[in-house]
Amino acid sequence: MDRSVEEKWQKRWQDSHLFEPLQDESKPKFMITVPWPYTNGPLHVGHGRTYTLADIIARFRRMRGFNVLFPMAFHQSGTPILAFSERIRLGDEKTINQYRDNLMEYEEPENIDSIMESFKKPENIASYFSDRIVKDFNSLGYSIDWTRRFTSADPFYQDFVKWQFERLRSKGLIKSGKYPVLYSVDDANAVGEDDISDGDIDKVTIEEYTAVAFRGDEYSLLAASLRPETLFGVTNLWISDHGDYVIVKVEGEKYAVSAEAAQKIILQHEGSAIISQVSSDDIISRKFTAPFTQSRLTVYRASFVDPDNGTGVVYSVPGHAVWDYVAIKQYGVPATPVKVISVQGGEGLTVESLVTEAGLSDLSDSGKIKDATQRLYREEFYSGRMNDSNGPFSGMTVQQAREAMRQELISSRLGFIFYEVSRKAQTRGGSKVVVAVLNDQWFIDYSVEWWKQESHDLIRRMYYYPEFYRNAMHEAVDWLRERPCARRRGLGTRLPFNSEWVIESLSDSTIYPAVYTNAAEMKRIHEILGKLPEEIVEYIYGSGTDESVSHYGEEVVLLAQSARRNLHYWYGVDIRLTAHPHLSNHLSFYVMNHAALFPKELQPRGLIITGLVVSNGAKISKSKGNAISLLKIATRYSADLYRLFVAVNADMSSTLDWNESEINAVRKRYETFLELMGQAGRQDRFVPTQVEKWFLSRFNQHMKEYIERMEGNDLRGAIISIFYEVINDLRYLENRGGNLPYSISSVSELWVRAMAPVIPHTCEELWEKAGKTGFVSVEQILDGDIGEIDESALAAERYLQKLVQDIRDIIKATKIDPASIGISVCSGEMRKLAQMLMEDRVSEATPRLKPFIGDFMKNRKNIDLGVEDEAMVIRSSRQYLEKLFQCTVNIEENNPGKGGKVAWPGRPVISLARQQ
RNA sequence: GCGGAGGUUGCCGAGCCAGGUUAAAGGCGACAGACUCAAGAUCUGUUUUCGUAGGGAUUCGCCGGUUCGAAUCCGGCCCUCCGCACCA
Description:
Layout: H1 3-15, E1 29-33, H2 45-63, E2 67-69, H3 80-89, H4 93-104, H5 109-118, H6 122-139, H7 155-170, E3 174-184, E4 189-190, E5 206-214, E6 220-225, E7 236-240, E8 245-250, E9 253-258, H8 259-268, E10 273-278, H9 280-284, E11 287-289, E12 296-302, E13 313-316, H10 322-331, E14 341-343, H11 351-358, H12 366-383, E15 384-386, H13 398-411, E16 415-421, E17 433-445, H14 449-461, E18 463-465, H15 469-479, E19 482-484, E20 486-487, E21 494-495, E22 498-503, H16 513-516, H17 519-529, H18 534-541, H19 546-549, H20 554-570, E23 575-579, H21 583-597, E24 606-610, E25 613-615, E26 618-619, H22 630-637, H23 639-648, E27 656-658, H24 660-678, H25 690-711, H26 715-735, H27 740-755, H28 760-769, H29 791-814, E28 820-825, H30 828-838, H31 853-859, H32 870-876, H33 878-885, E29 888-893, E30 909-913
Parallel strand pairs: 1-2, 1-23, 6-9, 7-12, 18-24, 23-24, 25-27, 28-29
Antiparallel strand pairs: 3-4, 3-17, 5-6, 5-16, 7-13, 8-9, 8-10, 11-12, 14-15, 17-19, 20-22, 21-22, 25-26, 28-30
This protein binds one RNA strand through helix 15, helix 21, helix 24, helix 26 and helix 29.
């Protein structure tokens, strides 16, 4: 469909406010939402899929008599927008080029510089892309009610979020405590994935080491390990041969660690401090006592010890660590490897076997040593058991022992947890990234038992498509525990009870769909009062009484009452539709927050979870350059083609592959549809024959299936039925010599209505061209619209198709090119016999017919009484058959008894005459 | 490892929950034919295999089981994909 035609209808829909519903008690309501997008750039085909599917559902429900609300708003909270803006301010080339590319799609080249300049303010990025997304979505014909648009940065919304957090807190679901975070040393601030260079490609995670104290006379030596369970096998200690060491004081104890480690310890343990330098000569001159074994250990210098990893001190376990084994050999350290873990099953790996296998003799083979270490770590972790030399830990699995020994070390003050980054990382600004422990991190405590119970109850009541996600939701909710809900930086709402913290961006977006129902009133109240007081939000959403808000004046009270009514009319989102990666985060928060804050009747009713979109089999990502923006789609392919493609090319729950050849295939079908619709023509005097009757019945069947499948949210199945199958039927009808204009015009009105949810622009245009008034988008599709399904018409055509297939099979098997085809149909007498036999009334058969019973049994599965007058069906299609097989076709009634084959109902005898 | 999904005919992808109507929808691709000067588009047929009569044989990851009957139900095994957190 021409772009200008699509734009015409989009404008008409907007001008007539077609999709801006109000309360209407005469209709059932239907509210459908898709999670709001984050507005740091243009959206691509992947986002478009979920909104398109939601729109098709919204449009269908509207046509089924529901009062449909499909609203949308924008998410602007969090750090990415802030970080991007900062990078543009700092002149980061990669970011600037990326945004310039984005802008090229929308803007005249001469405007780009000034827009880029405006992006130095983060809120401008957010508002710019919000506006673009609205345009893009309109260009795809979505029936979104934009009057309810707002953003997570709107002051009235933030007052709503504050109310939410006060409520959560009053229910005892908010707490604070210590928490490790990634941290930038120079910026003295927590950092997220997008602040770290290559953080998106190569993720940085936090690892928990156990710092183990080896007691000495003046100070202890603090080694850090991921494998505390190997402590019984320790033979000596290593320090770096190139690092600087200091004495750090932690909770009254003095430890020698590398200078780098001291900095990390200080960030992780409040009150700890460096008290002096210490030379490595001094460390080496001393002996230190190992925990558990109490052996006195010697310290050596080693090249493989990295002062910037862990504490810069390593305890040596040559029996279970490849590095240590290679090091004692290379340095000639007098140590004997000790085995403290034995492995049952597995690959039978040991340090020695790995060293021999890979020929490791030098610490400079670091790549190979790392690989060997990894393999051994895995083997021992999953299949290892502590042997008898491990004191109280003997016999435990490695996993049990690790935890038990760590606990023992901590409680006897011989160790503590030390956090380290999983790889060396720096911020995009170049500052080193380490792990710091924040002392007053705020959490939402999702582990509270009553809350989990309420959530499970809600999950049980909800609708799911596909159904198996119900179970996945139960699992996701069980798995949630305390979640940090606030950060030190980023855009968003400040925590009402501690304004130094900004509510984290997923936590501020859990119950926001409720605001769609009454955004206008809330905004207006905020304008009047300059804020949205907690009392009023409580009145609208919670349990407040009229008296509790009466002092705000009549206008405010009326607005609040209206907001409350709207909430109670619309809320409870009927369908929330999104892709599966949201399940274990957004959707579980969505469900749990509703379970905590809303009464049953306002809780979510259903979820539809979709698959992702890939492009030519590859994951879509901006860095690969295969992200096609939505604007490009509307202009390059047309909205309706995209919508049809999304609806038909994959089931909602599976991955959709976006590729040109598939799009072209859909385009051809779409063009065929238009071409067929163009052939519709009223034929008032035409009397339908068998094949037209068949088509109409088939169409009605497809229509019925369409409605059933759409109601079950099987969009793809519905469209295959009403689109592909109907087109195929029309093709068949044409080849059969049926009357195409008559047939199409008989169904066109209903057909256009059925297709309207998927290709609304095309259907509006067709609707108008057919002389209809009003919008097809708000027409109804009712069960009563479906005409009669004439079983005998269907049976007759089925009979003919089977006959054609049989003739073809015979021609194929015998390779005869027939000069003529003789068809002899079952006689009335034999038909009666067949009927008797089908009903097991064998005894009633006359003696003359009894001999045929054997033949009946043989052919039973092919015998079908569905067609009354077979000869008539064939005679009326004789021309078609003769044309098809390029020979004459003779029909006669079969006269059994003369020998040869017997014709049964649904099973005429076919004979091919050879060419002379 | 934990949790979830899945392995279907050249490919994509239905069917499986409610066993028979299923050699298995629909699409793509391939091949043949019609149309055309030709190509493209469109239409028709074929697309596991055997067959001189509409039939037979063997198929739905592998091995067993239940059943008159299994792609569909049950058990075991092999393999693949996805999520696992503070990040939107």
